[in-house]
Amino acid sequence: MLEVAGLTTKYGSISALRDVSLSVREGEVVGLIGPNGAGKTTLLGSIAGLLEPTSGSVHLDGKEVTGAAPDQMLRAGVALVPEHRRIFADLTVVENLKIGGVTTGAAERNASVEEMVDLFPVLGEKLSTPAGYLSGGEAQQLAIARALMSKPRLLMMDEPSLGLAPILVDVVFKLIDKLRAEGRTLLVVEQNATRMLQVADRAYVLRSGQVAASGPGPELLAGADLFDTFVSG
Ligand SMILES: Nc1ncnc2c1ncn2[C@@H]1O[C@H](COP(=O)(O)OP(=O)(O)O)[C@@H](O)[C@H]1O
Ligand SMILES: [Mg+2]
C-alpha cells in the first residue's frame, strides 16, 4: 500500500533522513523504532506531506504522492496522529472528533462518531467535555479517534505512549492490538521498542536518519542488538 523509496529529507543543509526505503502492506502493523533524533518524526512528516523530501519517492497504491500537501494525503487515505497529540483543548470531545471527519459528509461524520464511541467507550462518556479536561490517556485516545474519523487506509502514530503512566501505556498497546485485529493498517513510531516489536508484524530500526535494521518484530526482538541501537545511539 505504502512504498517509500530512497527518501532524503533535509532541514537546511542537514539531512535528517538519508536514502530511507520502507514499505507497509495492507493490514500490516509496522513499527518504527530508534533513538531520539533518528529521524522518525521526520519520516512520518515526509510521508504525511508536512515536510518536502529533497529526493526519493512516496507511492500510495502504486501512485506517486511525493511532496503532496497534507490535506491531499488525508484525502488519499493517510492520517497522522502527531507527537504530543495536538488536540484542541477548548473544543469538546465531539467537536474534536468532527474536525477529524472534515473530509467526509455530515451523515458519515455522525456515523463515525458513533463508531469511535464504540471503539473508545471512555470518550463516549465525555462527548461534551472540553478536551482540555481529559487525562493524558483519554487525550491520546481522542487524538487517535480523531485521526480515525477520516477513515484512513493508513494510520500513522508518532509516539502514542509518550508521557503516559504505565497503565495507560498498556491501554495504548491494547488499542494497537485491537486496531490490528480489525485489519487496519498502521505505521507506529514508538520509543517503547520492546513492546512495539511484540505487537508489530514488522519493524524498521532507524538510526542517524538511515534504516539500520528491519524485519519481523519477533525476529528483531530475538536477534536484537536493541541495546546497541539505543545505548550507543
Ligand atoms: N525543525 C527542525 N529544524 C532543524 N532540525 C530538525 C528539525 N526537526 C528535527 N530536526 C533534526 O532532525 C533530526 C531528526 O529529528 P526527528 O525526526 O525529530 O527525530 P526522532 O523523531 O527520531 O526523535 C534530529 O537531528 C533533529 O535535531
Ligand atoms: Mg520524534
In short:
This protein has helices at 40-48, 70-75, 93-100, 106-119, 121-124, 136-148, 166-181, 193-199, 217-223, 226-231; strands at residues 2-11, 14-24, 29-33, 55-60, 63-64, 78-81, 154-158, 185-189, 202-207, 210-216. The protein has 233 residues and is α/β, with parallel strands linked by helices. Magnesium ion (MG) binds next to helix 1.
In words, what does this structure look like?
There is one protein chain. The chain has 233 residues and is of the alpha/beta class. Helix content is 39%, strand content 26%. A six-stranded mixed β-sheet has the order 6-7-8-3-9-10, sandwiched between helices. A four-stranded antiparallel β-sheet has the order 2-1-4-5, with helices on one face. Helix 3 (93-100) packs parallel to helix 6 (136-148) and helix 8 (193-199) packs across helix 9 (217-223). The longest helix has 16 residues, at 166-181. The protein is globular, with a radius of gyration of 17 Å. The mean pLDDT is 91. The site of magnesium ion (MG) has 4 residues, from helix 1. Adenosine-5'-diphosphate binds at residues 11, 16, 34, 36-42.
